[in-house]
Specification:
624 residues; mainly alpha; 35 helices; elongated
Amino acid sequence: MRPFRLHRAVPLWVLVGLSVSASAAPGRRPSVDREAMREAINAREGEERYASPASYAHFLQSRRLHHAGAHEAAVDELRLALATDEGNPYLLTRLGEEYARLGELAKAERELRRAVERSPQYYPAHVLLGRILLEGKRYTRARMHLRRAVGLRPREPEAYWALAQAYLETREPDEAVKVVEALATALPGEASGYRRLGLALAERGDRSRAERLLVRATERDPGDGEAWVALARLYEAAGRLSNAEEAFARSLEQDADNREVLLSAGRVALKQGSATRARAYFDRLLSLSDDPELTVRVAFAFLASRETAAAAEVLDTARRSTPLEPRISYYAGLVHERRRRYAEAAAAYGEVPETSELFEEVRIRRAGCLSRVGAHAQALAIYLQALKDGPEDAALWVQYARAVERGGAPAQAEALLKEALGRTPSAEVYEALAATRQRQGRPAEGVAVLREALAQRPRDEALLYALGGAYEQQGQVEGALAQMRAVLRINPDNASALNFLGYLLVLHGQDVQEAERLVLRALALRPDTGAFLDSLGWVYFRRKEYQRAVETLERATQLEPEEPVILEHLGEAYRAASRPADAAEAWRRALEVLTLDPEAAELPAQRQGLERKLKMLSTEPPGR
């Protein structure tokens, strides 16, 4: 009967969601490594056995079943193998593994205990038993077996990894660090312990320890891309963006085509205000694949940094270079619409086929864009078809009526809104009817519509807010203030009403301190709102705190780069801060928006007012 060594036939695999390798190649060793020799001698105990051919055959069958995922059948085969080789620690360890994969941890523990009792020097059994006990939250006994394993093979890293995990589970990170330090001492040049523990600590939010360990991992192994990425994410979370980008770049030195890293590096570059570096990363990313998902993610990265032109360019390039993809066309339409490029938006929306799940939304958006560019017949036909499909949709009636009004039929638009009120008497329709009358030069009738609606629904916040806006447009400041206060009595946390009330107070030279309090309260409720920051900037402007006004209004324009009112206010702040060139640029940008979309004007004469300001600015003496 030939002897065989089962542990050489198939390496030991790890289980229960814990990744471990059977062995790790050590770094450079001296010509005579006595420690390695001792490990090899210890490893032989209990492994080299004489087994029957039948035992070996059952073992091989168990491995086939194991790899096929048939773990119950594998258990049966291992039991047959053990029938003629009862004390083989390798077979017992394999049996424990199969039980663990089946979730039968008690049986797994029983077999592994038999293995370590029969062969106390058998390293794999101690490691696996330690992991099973760790899974069962029996930390003290788990650490005992894992320390025993470390003692048996001090140059094998997997027991160290599991022991460090055991200390993490009991919230003893310093002890876990000591374990990986011991591994680093046993294996000079070994970086895996630092990296693994650093990653684990990062996931647990222990950033300072994680950073120290990951730095040490990269010092030992500068080619460890995973450690560089983890470090980059820690730096990014801490606001250390230049360090983050550098770490991402080091990772890309190892894997230049890593898509997630390229995307992350581009985002970090954008956060630092460098669209040029971001484009370099993103161009590389997009060259790797024409996957629409990548295109969308890059576009969203640009949008998150308010780089709408770059987002539009990415999406338009994808539309030209790849087969029709509805999502790309849809997002391209959204971006162009946000930039008030309505013709381009309509063209992009028109590429979305009727079979797409996006079509219902896209056709309404396309109709709105067509209406804006004067393609009234097309727009009205789309709205009519949509109304046949959804006659109770109040928002659709409002959009349809507005398109009819743009087409030169305001009386018909008003009639449509009245019909809509008969179907769905919503605040949205009342407000649209009031606005229609306002645009026709009948503001008092618009106010009357809202007051009649409020008589029936006196606590409707949207109607109260709309009436306040109508009063403000007519110059009835006290009426507008009263409506905003009425909204806040119903809902003290209505952020829009808080902001509008504050804006009215400061705009009309009333209580500036109270205005600031109200606007700050609105911003606390909705921090990233451009209109609220605009109001706060105007508070500072009225106080003649021009630098604070500039900084606040610049933040507002970052959030709302295509909003002419905010741009006009920013120009005023620049002018007061003795920055006439910047003021002129802000006002020109506002005029560009109003040229693209005259309906964006806050007041009918806003465009003419901006032109006058630019003309006056050009005649002012330098240094004013």
